[in-house]
Amino acid sequence: MLYEQIRQNKRRTVYVLIGFVLLVLAIGAAIGYMFFNSSIAGLLMALVIAVVYSAIMIGNSTNVVMSMNHGHEITSADQAPELWHIVEDMALVARVPMPRVFIIDDPSPNAFATGNDPQHAAVAATSGILQILNREELEGVIGHEMTHVRNYDIRLQTIALALSAAISLLVNIGMNSFWWGGGRRDRDDDDNDGGYLRIIMFIVSIVLVILGPLAASIAQMALSRNREYLADAGSVELTRNPQGLISALQKISGGEPMQAADSSSAALYITDPFKNKRSFAHLFDTHPPIADRIDRLQKM
Amino acid sequence: MITSIVIIVVLVVLGIIYASLYNGLIRARTYTQESWSQIDVQLKRRNDLIPNLVETVKGYGHYEQSTLEKITSLRSQLMGVPSDDHQKAMEVSNQLSDTLKSILAVSEAYPDLKANEEYTKLMEELSNTENKIAYSRQLYNSSAASLNMKLQTFPSNMVANLHHFTPADYLQVPEEEKSAPKVSFGN
């Protein structure tokens, strides 16, 4: 069952990747069409940005994500014995190599995992979570993160993150051209040949530019929600102690929102770092409601 | 001509199936052996920690003397267990874990011991090692289960019989840890 899930994850990664790349290219073409008179130029620009971003993320995702979230690495057990030892334990029982360990100085309790594959993974915990959780609870949390590592969730999230970042960069370029008078070819207005087609293309482009980032985040979040349940189950499989994770989730849900978190990495965290304030509908939730997660854990 | 091609193809396919079954068995057996050596490493580590621990707590409370003696004797008993007797090693180890736990409990009553930096460090090391023993035992048992499953199910059991694979023993889990819940992935 678990292995099927891992394989399915790897397959889904490919689909998401293809869908995302198409979206990036479409948005690039739309921006090129609207602001630079050439959809091909936009397409090429989008391609270059997507390739560069993905390459940076795949080669160096851990460092990028960690610096976006203000994490600093610890390299020996002396610096944070309990966290280090728990990560060691969970890596041992999940049969993955020891990941790199980071601490984020933020009083809000949270944790996440990132990386490209289990051989290049990293786990981060906030100083807040280390303070309020006891050993069993922290084991539950790290077990959850280690399941993300073992199931290759981290790779999917990493690539999704790179492509959403590419989309927001493209839209920013488009917006800047708009404000700085790039404008669209007013001079062509008296040319009526194919005018309808142009209007349609223009509208499609606007829709793409506006909805593109939205579509990207919806896809990213839907992918993330399902994995959270799975990672909770995986954590219990590793620790054999649902109570630890349950009481960890209860404690975390009472914490304050994070200051140091980066918004595009929200899906990586064990619970939503922004405490849901920005979303008006569950469509945008990166995480299932904690009550639901606890409910499922209690049924195990 | 065609029949010989068919025969060759069938033989090649059978060979590939055979090889992958055999490799699966070897992998399961290696995992099991490897997870035993994980336990072994942790048992040795704990044995190395004990003299330090005994040295540190010695000065506090004379009535712990018998506990300390018990720990020392269990430690040397554990070192004397032949390396392939997994059951015996775990049995002694479980007794040792219990006795060490009672030291932990007693030390709660000595504030200056708890404030001792050396002691706190030792305690973290000790609980780390105890946890690792428990987790590697869990890993061992799940590896053993997957090996034994392969030995009993068709078609890997045929390959296993051919190569005389033997089933792995499960390690006993101490009473208090037995209440571990079953995990199901159903939604």
From TrEMBL, chain A:
Cofactor: Zn(2+)
Segments passing through the bilayer: 12-34, 40-59, 159-179, 199-219
CDD domains assigned to the protein according to its UniProt record, in alphabetical order: M48B_Htpx_like (cd07340)
Top-level lineage group: Bacteria
Organism: Furfurilactobacillus milii
Peptidase M48 domain boundaries: 79-299
Membrane topology: Multi-pass membrane protein
Localization of this protein: Cell membrane
Enzyme Commission identifier(s): 3.4.24.-
PANTHER family: PROTEASE HTPX
Keywords: Cell membrane, Hydrolase, Membrane, Metal-binding, Metalloprotease, Protease, Transmembrane, Transmembrane helix, Zinc
Residues annotated as catalytic: E145
Pfam family, one: Peptidase_M48
Family from the record: Belongs to the peptidase M48B family.
Name assigned to this protein: Protease HtpX homolog
UniProt xrefs under NCBIfam families: PRK04897.1
Predominant place of localization: membrane
Gene name as annotated: htpX
Listed GO MF terms: metallopeptidase activity
